[in-house]
Protein 1
Amino acid sequence: MSTFVEEKPTQKLESFKGVKKVPHEEYYTSGHRTCQGCESAQIMKLMAKAAGPRTIVLGSTGCMYVANTSYYATPWGVPWMHTQLGSSGSAALGAAAAFRAQMRKGAMKDEPINVIAFCGDGGGADMGLGAISATMTHPDYNLLILMYDNESYANTDIQISGTSPYGVNTSFSTPGKVKRIMHHRWKKNMAPLMLVGHPTCKYVGTISTSYPLQAMNSVRKALSIGGPTFIHCLNPCPKGWDFDPVLSFELGELAVNTGIWPLYEVENGVLKLYGKTEKIANGQFKRLPVRDYLLKQGRFAHFIDEDIEYFQSKIDEMWNKWLVPGIIPLRREIEADEPR
Amino acid sequence: MGQLFAVEIIYRGVFQKTLAKNITRGIVLAAHNEGKLGISFGRYGDSPERNGIPAKSFAIVASDAQTLEAGMAQYEPKQVDVTVVLDDTLCKGAESWAWYGLHPVHQALKPGGTLIVDSLQDAPTLLKGIHRRQEPYKLGIVKGVTSFSGMWVYKDDHTDVRILGAIAKALPAVVSLASIEKFINEKLKNPLKATSAHTTFERFTSMNVKPGEGNAEEPFSFQLPKWNNMRKGVSVNGQPQGGPYADPVTKEVGGFRPVRNDKFKKYSTRTMRPVVNFETCTKCTLCWLNCPDASFDVTPDGKYDANLEACCGCGICEAVCPVPNCITMVAETAFDGNASQWEAFRKDKAAYKEWLKATVQPAGERSHGFRYRGQYKEQIPAVLEIAEKG
């Protein structure tokens, strides 16, 4: 039976078997004008390294556009093009379709070329959500959308985005004397949104730059599996989160170890937790208190114990009450089973 | 036309953003007390700021409205009466976000103007970094620990008012100490800060720097390409792939050195640099893999050498290095130039070991922003003590 889906082969990118097997070549090198300790630049470097030379990258507006590629300054070693803030999805789909047309016409060599579009949390979780969603429903085109998430519009000096955490201090939510908490929305759960909403999408993953090998392997899997894929990466931002850049790596680890940022991938519908998240889920590792994570960041400096407790209770809820702990917020009927 | 004065503050982006703003705001509000008019503003090209990348903030003060308007008719002051450098590591030159190449810190300073540096170093040490120039100027030091904080939490260690006191001494015509004290008492409502400003005013002195005195190095510059140098489709060339390079001693070729952008070096962003003990390096790859700036060269013998033209000094390599004391971040004031540490190590291991010992051991803790809640409160008394002793 014909499905009428026109699939094209992808590059077969094997997972790196260890840090010593990671190639030396850089496709995103020095010369970007990001902050000291910028983890968003770090994921660009890892992503480009993982994807290799036969890749084109499209970038929607955000730090990774402005700080990387204004005028003649560029760290990119693979072709890169800017796309509008909300259009990483359409740009990726369009580029993949254009490649197909060019190859069909014989205008270029018929070979699998990785198409990656990145977006920040503002470009992805807020403005570009519709376009990314539409792209995720096109099974014919091989592409990856990578959302680097620094939990704010960091380029324009830290405004609230859909992924800003509860209570955070930003340019739009300065704590006041009367009202301490000016942002009371909970972070958008992007990867599960992509996963649950787009049943034909073959790969959705979350990564962290503090686990670089897994992050690169996640990118390689997403590019190899075929069809539209989505990766959400949490990037500690020394500027907007207000911490000493030396802590960039540690905060990425803490986000995982406190259970705030679960690491997992869903490959053809099969969920696999990895790293510390897997250990948290099977009880081998006790989640660290979120206090450890929050108190290292100036953006939470206005929190009083009550706020930290509330934050902790929401994380506990995520792990104790959700049907798929840490990931899908459907409730188990746990209160009925264990009356207090 | 009346009198027009301009003061510029060169500071570390984000880390000293609030501090710089407080100073320029202070100048303008204090000058109001004398019936002068003024405006304070950040350099447009530096916005949005990035952590550590040198930025500028200005205060323009005029004797009347018309003069102020005339002064504001330019994009930014081309010539200033006083330049304040809030971090002494900036004395080696500032390469701003706005992509101008490396500028000497006194680039905009008028002949005979005053350069004020917040530092614990003495003038001869600072002049090793400050580039030489043809016009004479004055150099004055406000002795103090460099004040770093972040976007949201401000470290109120009196650096703002101490700089104001120094400006009043360097150029009383722009604003007097009495006006500054009035501003502090009325607007900041902190008599202790007024005392700090007063003490700095009393102590501040400046020395004359003669033409040609200072760092002889040519600051890094490049020809700004024009739009018509771009390729078809308004595109520009990407970075070519790097490759192996030769060991300076054995001439053995190996390792990997990435090609780096030759128009933005980023090293003037650095306040600390990684110093590597190559003898204890286990070749674990972590510093190289986790560097957001791809600043590590893989050496022909499989070690990792921080390329100091690309390194911006975040310290992640030190944080991820599993070997104790293999990578140590050391304050940038201890160094001249950006030469490869690995090459020095290869050429003379014994000398490198000595150098390492001399460089790493005195390396004190350098606060680079918010690490934990309550940290600034703990740090402020020690900082104020140093300030008081002068």
Protein 2
Amino acid sequence: MTGLPLLSIAIWLPIVGGLLVLATGADRNAGLARPLALVVAVAGFLVTLPLYTGFDHATSAMQFVERAPWIPRFNINYLLGVDGISVLFILLNSFITPLVVLAGWKVIGEKVAQYMASFLIMSGLMNGIFSSLDAVLFYVFFEASLIPMYLIIGIWGGPNRVYAAFKFFLYTLLGSLLMLIALIYLFFQSGFSFNLLDWHALKISLTTQIYLFLAFLVAFAVKVPMWPVHTWLPDAHVEAPTGGSVVLAAIMLKLGAYGFLRFSLPIAPDASRELAWLMIALSLTAVVYIGFVALVQADMKKLIAYSSISHMGFVTLGFFIFNSLGMEGALVQMISHGFISGAMFLCVGVLYDRMHSRQIADYGGVVNTMPKFAALFLFFAMANSGLPATSGFVGEFMVILGAVKFNFWVGFAAAITLILGAAYTLWMIKRVVFGAVANHHVAELTDIDAREFAVLGLLALCVLGMGLYPLPFTEVMHASVDNLLKHVAVPKL
Amino acid sequence: MINFVMPDLYPASAEIFILVMACVLLLVDLFAGSGRRWLVYLLTQLTLAGCFGITLATLDGQSVTTFSNMFVDDLFADFLKLVLYPTVAVMLVYSRQYLAARNLDKGEFFVLVLFATLGMMVMISASHFLTIYLGLEMLALSLYALVAIDRDSARATEAAMKYFVLGAMASGLLLYGISMVYGAVGSLEIAEVGQRIALGGGNKTVLVFGLVFVVAGLAFKLGVVPFHMWIPDVYHGAPTAVTLFIGSAPKLAAFAIAMRVLVTGLAELAEHWQVMLMILSALSIALGNLAAIAQTNLKRMLAYSAISHMGFMLLGLLAGIVGGDPRFALNAYSSAMFYVIAYVLMSLGSFGMILLLSRAGFEAENIEDFKGLNKRSPWFAAIMMILMFSMAGVPFFVGFFAKFAVLQAVVAAKQIWLAVFAVMFSLVGAFYYLRVVKVMYFDAPTDSASIEAPRDMRLLLSVNGLAVAVLGLLPEGVLEYSIYASYAFLVGQ
């Protein structure tokens, strides 16, 4: 283990780099902004690698801890640390960022520096969210990350981008403001501490726990998003530029789920168990009902957005059945969904860049003109519907096993997703990729170039690798998940 | 024969200096003529710098009263004055070009500003109800004239008229309330009033009756609902330079007199004025934020936003004494003070931006006028964005910590539902701040005129915006500053 403050570097390198990119200024310097952004993004990924290689699998304690007083007035500390639950998301986030930079390489012709800088800064902020162990620090990163996303959707988005940007911002802010009150309340309850680990040990009465749980629920349910507060997501996805959709699906949605693990479950375990029925019901509704909604979408991005909601329902289901299979499955599903949904949005982006349409009806027979692309798209679609040997299968299978252990009918309902997921994804593929060439636009399509191939190929390798050999992922989280489950099982009234 | 004792002038040296300088300026202006207006401007700035120096030099942490206990020089007053002078100085820098372009930069403007500043200094240092009244009237009369200084503008004249009539009525209310208090306890010295009430002196009914009028008078000066009617019209009607003045420095003075009157003088009636403040602040937060949404004029929007911000600040004031227990007083009052300072900083910057974009014959006062600012000047668009997000209370900007500080004081006072109410309306508030960002970043510019402003203004405005960001990252200094001041206040009373 090195003595470097790795987590701080993971947070601030992209942010400072983003500001540097911003300083390149006007679009005449775009030739400088793009490579600089890529260098920063790749460097940002490389510095997170020691977090994985130096990670001690045997312990559930926080690692790479950094502590410095930030605002002594309120006992707020700059307290960072990762455990088996959070470390993978920092890696995932840092891995996705260079891909996003590459994906926007050519398409973004306007305000390039601002575009690249927004993504880099957001990447740093999200690393901050995953590594904060101080509640206010977490909150500050959590809310600050809304700003770049708001700008990304609003500046580079589609025709209805203003509506989507506002909806995204206000919806998420609604949740987080209630959480802020809960955090302040806990500050006083815990004798003036914002340290999350102190809060985990705090004894709280059941009624209070339920209030706290509900406050956290609003914040994180919006972010996940869970049914019925999911409606911002399809709008945001459809209007956001490709890069925005990728980050949104791959990382931002995970913040909500991560919040459940870091706040709701350990701080209010009794309320979590008390309200598990509610969470399971909402999750299953997302899995099944939203699956049907995805089936009828005519817009590819919307379809993938609904598919994301449905998959995230799986994640929250896995958390609230309280066994290690379910929880680890849910975490694997989160990582895998990061790869797959990111890749799916990139695929739609590839098509959109060429045709400027996301409507399924405008396509048909893409395989004839873009064979390389079609192969990759099909592969990701298979992974999205949970094909064995892809990462999509591992997580879903673990969660379903866990759910059956918990209650057969819950497991049964969850398993419906395997059918539904395959139905909506593959039906979309059938209509877009296969068949005869639909119109002269499709006939004029050119296949993906080396840059696009590299981006998608890399993701395909990840999906395949994780599907064939998930151990490197699960062994990291094992100790922390066990510890969390043990913690949740003990009443803390 | 009256035995005349020469009062100790030392504690009031800054006030005496500014008074002398204001009179000197009147003469200088007479001889300088229109060709040498810079001289008056320069002398005004030097006067403020001199005041700053004097206050700093006489800073000794002692609470000294003079003029037969009518005037107090304590750390609380000094600290507020040290914020006051720079605020006025910055306002003068921002206004200079605007005034010159409209031929308003006559000597009277500067003299009136100095007299208003003197009024505020007297308010801040008042330890006697009559001194408060004296300072208040000095400030108000100067402001009435300042609002009407552009005498050819019907809108400004109307605003001045409205301000004058309502202001006179509020002064009447305040005086009436003061006379009731005097009738009940037989003293006008604030500390003496507090002591006599604490010893059971005074008829409670009469006192509470008087309190209602005092609070109403204060509420008018702070501009909180339902005594807010003058705010939008005056902010809108006054020349923007004057709006900037009204919208910044007087909030500090109003905060000071609210503290002196309510906490030092009428603390025993806390249970009564707390309820009044609660109603006032809840109404202000609700109405201010809701009405701001409907505005298309930025000055009016900021006026309603000022109403809601003052309501938020009152939350801090009312949280100081919990059921007669002053344990949280320091926490609450220092939070309120921090809020005021943060608000003044943001308010200066936002009105400064309007002044920046205005030019001869053109007032950039509509939200539409900020369209596409990101194209015209990415730097100042970013500054405005920082200011707007800060006003909305989004981290990492100082506005977040201002809200945070007040909210934690409210939660500490066990008024959780009040805190929830306040944050819910902050969400509403976020909408209209976001709209300004939207206009700047998402819309195409309609105005292509380049931004011409003197270098000192550009520099100072940039510093102002960056200060909002830097204080958001490192708020500890200003928090400590507020604590020192509030501590001195509580010890001194």
